[in-house]
Batch of 2 targets.
Target 1
Amino acid sequence: MKILLSPPKYFDVMYSINPWMNPDQPIGKKEAREQWDYLKKRLEQEGVDVKLAEMPSPDLPDFVFTANAGMVMGNRAIVSRFRDKERQPESEYFYKWFVENGYETLMLEDDEVWEGEACMFPIAGHVLCSHGIRADKKAYRKITDFFRIPKEKVVYAGIIDPYFYHLDVCFCPLNENTAMYCEMAFDGETRAWLKQNVKNLISVSYDEALNFACNAIIVNKTVFLNKGASIELIEALHQAGYFPVEIPIHQFIRAGGGVKCLALYLDRWDNPTSD
Ligand code: ARG
């Protein structure tokens, strides 16, 4: 499996664009680097081929969260369009990265807000496309065309809680039929759809989701997630055939990002859901 990371050379909290961020509290830079290094090492031990995108500038301290670079399906990549001006310049660097690495790459218009894989996940023969807070519904017309996702496979997921401003902090697909999720983050329609369509839906409590438990990287049967998972969640994962591995990641949580936010799958979504 190939995953894109970005070494946290300039990682910091310099502004506040989500409820987790407080620029008055300095980041422990050394510890952040150690936490990131440990994540990278554990992924590599699991056989992951880690690719790197270097942070281009101290002015883009959130660049480290590559789940927001864009999304890759097969050989096609779509670059994120950020809601906040502080992150908007990241797009051109990620565009360059995708093009230089051989992807057929689409850049959305400025007003088609969508923040990459953090907003969109395949599950249960469909693709969950989140909207609200950091993604506009209108961006999905081009996105689903480019990824050749038929209309009937698109499920819009409304996110209603500002602490769960990206889909990847309240939802995590383990495989086609299994996912972790935090029910309270979603609107009623989405809750109902998930319950009806995802065979093994592991419900994560609100408090546990606030500890970024749903923000996990899945490699084979291993679930990389933040330190502090409850016995209940660990048991539920075991029962589903998965093994949790805890990665302390609290310096990044101070920017509103956990383990998954630091990673972009480059070959997990190999075949766009087209049949
Ligand atoms: N500070 C970053 C932001 O607010 C955190 C991004 C977290 N990324 C994610 N995939 N959820 O944009």
Note: The pocket of arginine is lined by residues 17-18, 21, 62, 65, 67-68, 87, 118, 166, 168-169, 255-257, 261 (CB under 6 Å).
Target 2
Amino acid sequence: MSNPLPAPYDARIERVRRELKERGIQCLLVSSRENVRYLVGFSGSAGWVLVTDNDIVLATDARYIEQVRRDLGNSCARLADAGLNAFAVSYVATCEAAVLGFEAEHLSYAGAKTLENAIELSGTCCEVRPTDGIVEGLRAVKDDGELAAMTRAAALADGAIAHARTVLRCGMTEHALAWEIERWMREHGSGPVPFGIIVASGPNAALPHATPGERQFAAGEPIVIDLGATWGGYCSDLTRTLFPDHMPPPFDSVYGTVLSAHMVALHGARSGMRMADVDGLARSVIVDAGFTDCFTHGLGHGVGLEIHERPAVSSRSTDILLDRMVYTIEPGIYLPGQGGVRIEDTVVMLEGMPQSFSHSDKENPVV
Ligand code: ZN
Ligand code: ZN
């Protein structure tokens, strides 16, 4: 009765229960779409999970209820016909929780106020308490099924960059190449792409988050291509910088520096290290080469159901690197007005060491 869901969800819910016990919370309201998907496998657009020490329910509306009954069984599925808020209030009253935790990062201020007021009006004696990162913290450490999905997503990204290398021509526009990449991934099985593909050429390559436009590629200029696919909801993230025809100065030395910084972090990270120190491994290579102010973002980010999730991978991060964490290593050097270079792999920590999901060539950027 206490946990009717199959693997891997049963284990995940048990981990949530341990967290709740430590924090003195009797009931957790999970409203983040990704957290709901992580805990019960439901990927619809409207659904709240409520977890207590001996129960778990997914409340949803009439559009989804039949699917949820089929996937999760009658004991978990609840039709919230008067709305999710009203459902949560009546559920809290029945389970007699002294503290109801909600996800402060995901429920809006207005949503939290409405919930609090409704609970007060109902006469239930329950404290409504904001919580932070309970499910996200668990999601940072991946299980085997998640790693398998991420391997598939990464293979799609590798295939897409290989495709880009074959179709890239001088005179082609950024937009045309971005669409070639997206179409290739979707045709080969990717779900919706997790972010707008970046194809940034020439001076645009100096902008880490450039949007592809009508600019045409010219020989000898950098083209930063940052792309990702999804498989079973899990994201991949990959960046390569390519040069049509040849790689002129200063980009030859810029490319060499970024590649060294990338490899130092890729080979030097160890489980147990502070993420800030992993960032420092790459950053010091770039600083030592004289490009101090040209690496303008953190080394990377966690990846999973979301393209940016925990752990934080930057000089300000307080996270500790653990086995089975998945994150990106993506140093870059950006020269305003001239262009830039970024090289990104997604890696997983296994037996203390990083192992890359990405296998695309980094040594030969000239196409
Ligand atoms: Zn990326
Ligand atoms: Zn990234």
Note: The chain has two domains: 9-139, 144-356.
